[in-house]
């Protein structure tokens, strides 16, 4: 038994350098892998930071978008109400007051960077318009916007709501 | 190494995501939206539009606007599904020479593969623009029931779009991947996918030796023509019929009014997922000879649930059927994943939970979870999500006990490890020779309610008034969750430390239990903490007041001195009571009295510079980081 053990140990010693070499190789490989992973993580982090900054800028620029989108239907309805004021009420002071409230709201939106999209007379452009209906009309160019159903808006250069329009067939 | 794009190529919408810094992230399209309509058109000017732009002109150009092409891809013309869809879809569909399908857009006929490729190409371009790098590879998802021909067609679409398609994976598998459920073995998962236009059920089975990419789909079921849109339609019908009843006007013929009703209905549906009641408010919805008409209805969650109960019942029935086909009982299912926007509806979540007796996974945005899962798969392929880089988080907060038995958190729960944090503390009494650092774990406000992980003493602090010594306490957790806590007296440099193993090693149940307790006792704990803080404040004020009297007593009038002494005595009396109101008011009184003295002292010391000493704000307080 004892001799066998000795022999084993001797064998171990003999092959030790090779084993060590293999181990070293393995370690080196692992080291490279870990270093690469670490570098990648660092790089990812730095990139992430840059992107976060970019995102923050966007949030600042478009952060009010959600809120504005929720306010717009109120303005739509005010405009609808105004458009349907009966003729004999047009000069009513009370009605004028309501119009003034509407323009106050529009003024607020303008100051927040919200712009109205131009529609009537323009060529239909899906970048800005959403077509709801096609109408036949002889003296007009096909594809021209003939009626605005709902106003569209741009916030800091980005369409936050396309204008809903009727176009010429 | 360039990124691999994960794409959920959906019937109505498509979503894309990539792995960034080891985490999946949705990529917005050029228009700034997280989802892109799966729609393509060719305009009169031969201009090709994809996504939202195609949708904006769809109504006026229905015969040239292709949507839902996923219903056709890889199918034969004779397929009953195709025949069914042919009746519904507004564009022309015809048979190719080899029995396949073609759709007409503009003057030309296209194969569904080509249409899908156009959608994928847009996603590719938008992603490249957004990420600022070229993207050549993609993982695309498809329904579990897709056969070989449909999968092949999806792959070809990816290739036509310019991708090297690394893999086509099943949508339910992607959803499971997004939740990290595929790591477990010997496991049955149900994916309940209620989208806008389709309802899919998949039973996934992960065996003992299953590899990630060979997750078996045991059964699929559902209804390819049932979805959230049907719910919207019901709400629309309800509004229209109500209005007809109330006002005698049929709005179903008025396309502009219908448009507004449709939007308002969808909005109401979404709102009712988070609130119990909502208002459908459409002033000037129409007008007749008598003038304008307004529409205003209240809709409750219960009413909506009632309105669509048959759809929900149908989905549960299909669930039963699919399970039966897989030879499984509800109890055999370990995990349930909810996918698709309609699963945000509380009633659906409730019914699914009731059916399985288990809480389904629903935390990831159900519209995005499939794309997220595709990105996770991409991450695995890229090697970014290697085991070694999967970082743990601390399940519970770690901190120390401070004056009055308060638990002060140094590392909050859900902090990614490895991490470390250092904070400076001080003594609570004059000439205090040592401090005890008692390391705690848990979310409760008071030390005794949290788990004690260990404690040690740091002694040999040179005599100094309270609040002056600076004891630097550092927490450091390594990747294995081993916590090292050390305390160092900055004056002497003396330090002590403790090593706590398994600070993260609580079982899931234990962690949940502790979190739940913390939730239950939040209000109570807050009260206790407030009391202790008020007591600390009182204690501190007594200390400074006595000190002021001792040091400057000769500069003030006897009357004032007596007043303060009385107020101090008063405060001392209530200091240890639990009456927080009284404690606060007495503290306030003393504080006001002592401030008056301060003014008196300055007057007496006129000509001299004001002293530097300010009242200390309470001991064991953070002084800096």
UniProtKB/TrEMBL annotation, chain B:
Segments for region (Disordered): 601-625
Induction line: By stress conditions e.g. heat shock.
PROSITE patterns, per database record: HSP70_1, HSP70_2, HSP70_3
Protein name from the UniProt record: Chaperone protein DnaK
Keyword line: ATP-binding, Chaperone, Nucleotide-binding, Phosphoprotein, Stress response
Sequence similarity: Belongs to the heat shock protein 70 family.
Gene: dnaK
Keyword DNA-binding belongs to the record: no
Keyword Nucleotide-binding: yes
Amino acid composition bias (Basic and acidic residues), ranges on this chain: 610-625
Pfam families: HSP70
Primary role: Acts as a chaperone.
GO MF, one example: ATP-dependent protein folding chaperone
Residue positions, PTM Phosphothreonine: 198
């Amino acid at each position: 038994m004892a001799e066998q053990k000795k022999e084993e140990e001797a064998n171990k010693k003999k092959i030790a350098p090779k084993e060590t070499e293999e181990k070293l190789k393995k370690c080196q490989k692992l080291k490279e892998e870990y270093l690469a992973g670490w570098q990648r993580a660092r790089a990812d982090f730095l990139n992430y930071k840059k992107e976060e900054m970019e995102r923050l800028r966007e949030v600042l620029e478009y952060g009010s978008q959600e809120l504005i989108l929720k306010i717009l239907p109120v303005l739509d309805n005010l405009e609808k109400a105004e458009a349907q004021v009966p003729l004999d009420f047009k000069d009513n002071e009370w009605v004028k007051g309501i119009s003034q409230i509407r323009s106050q709201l529009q003024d607020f939106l303008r100051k927040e960077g919200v712009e109205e999209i131009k529609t009537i007379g323009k060529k239909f452009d899906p970048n800005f318009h959403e077509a709801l209906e096609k109408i036949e009309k002889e003296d007009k160019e096909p594809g021209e916007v003939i009626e605005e159903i709902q106003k569209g808006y741009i916030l800091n250069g980005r369409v936050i709501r396309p204008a809903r329009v009727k176009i010429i067939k | 190494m360039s990124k691999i794009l994960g794409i959920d190529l959906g019937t109505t919408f498509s979503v894309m995501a990539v792995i960034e810094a080891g985490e999946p992230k949705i990529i917005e399209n050029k228009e700034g939206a997280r989802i892109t309509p799966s729609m393509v058109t060719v305009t009169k000017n031969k201009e090709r539009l994809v996504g939202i732009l195609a949708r904006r002109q769809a109504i006026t150009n229905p015969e040239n606007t292709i949507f839902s092409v996923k219903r056709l891809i890889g199918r034969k013309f004779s397929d009953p599904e195709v025949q069914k869809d042919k009746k519904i879809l507004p564009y022309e569909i015809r048979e190719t020479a080899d029995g396949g399908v073609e759709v007409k857009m503009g003057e030309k006929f296209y194969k569904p593969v080509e249409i899908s490729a156009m959608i994928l190409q847009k996603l590719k371009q938008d992603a490249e623009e957004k990420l600022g790098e070229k993207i050549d590879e993609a993982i695309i998802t498809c329904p579990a029931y897709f056969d070989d021909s449909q999968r092949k067609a999806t792959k070809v679409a990816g290739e036509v779009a310019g991708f090297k398609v690394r893999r086509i994976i099943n949508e339910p598998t992607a959803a499971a991947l997004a939740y990290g459920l595929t790591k477990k073995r010997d496991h049955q998962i149900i994916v309940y996918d209620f989208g806008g236009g389709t309802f899919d059920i998949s039973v996934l089975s992960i065996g003992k030796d299953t590899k990630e990419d060979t997750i078996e789909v045991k059964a699929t079921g559902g209804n390819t023509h049932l979805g959230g849109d049907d719910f919207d339609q019901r709400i629309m019908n309800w509004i229209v019929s109500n209005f007809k009843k109330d006002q005698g006007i049929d709005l179903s013929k008025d396309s502009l009014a219908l448009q507004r009703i449709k939007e308002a209905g969808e909005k109401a549906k979404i709102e009712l997922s988070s609130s119990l009641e909502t208002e459908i408010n459409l002033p000037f919805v129409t007008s007749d000879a008598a003038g304008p008409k307004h529409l205003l209805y209240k809709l409750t969650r219960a009413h909506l649930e009632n309105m669509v109960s048959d759809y929900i019942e149908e989905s549960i029935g299909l669930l039963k059927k699919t399970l039966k086909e897989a030879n499984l009982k509800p109890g055999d299912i370990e995990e349930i994943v909810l996918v698709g926007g309609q699963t945000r509806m509380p009633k659906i979540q409730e019914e699914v939970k009731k059916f399985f007796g288990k809480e389904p996974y629903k935390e990831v945005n159900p519209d995005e979870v499939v794309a997220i899962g595709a990105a996770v798969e991409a991450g695995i392929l890229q090697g970014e999500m290697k085991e070694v880089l999967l970082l743990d988080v601390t399940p519970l907060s770690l901190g120390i006990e401070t004056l009055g038995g308060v638990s002060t958190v140094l590392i909050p729960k859900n902090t990614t490890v490895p991490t470390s944090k250092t904070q400076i503390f001080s003594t609570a009494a004059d000439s205090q020779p040592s401090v005890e650092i008692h390391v705690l774990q848990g979310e409760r406000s008071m030390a005794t309610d949290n788990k004690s992980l260990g404690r040690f003493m740091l002694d040999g602090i040179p005599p100094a008034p309270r609040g002056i010594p600076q004891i630097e306490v550092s927490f450091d957790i390594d990747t294995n969750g081993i916590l090292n806590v050390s305390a160092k007296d900055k004056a002497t440099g003396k330090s002590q430390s403790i090593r706590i193993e398994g600070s993260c090693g609580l079982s899931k149940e234990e962690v949940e239990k502790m979190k739940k307790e913390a939730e239950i006792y939040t209000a109570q704990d807050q009260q206790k903490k407030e009391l202790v803080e008020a007591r600390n404040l009182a204690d501190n004020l007594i200390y400074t007041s006595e000190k002021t009297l001792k040091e400057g007593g000769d500069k003030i009038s006897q009357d004032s001195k007596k007043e303060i002494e009385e107020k101090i005595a008063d405060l001392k009396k209530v200091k240890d009571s639990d009456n927080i109101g009284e404690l606060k008011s007495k503290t306030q009184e003393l504080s006001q009295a002592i401030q008056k003295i301060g003014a008196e002292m300055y007057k007496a010391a006129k000509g001299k510079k004001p002293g530097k000493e300010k009242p200390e704000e309470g001991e064991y307080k953070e002084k800096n980081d």
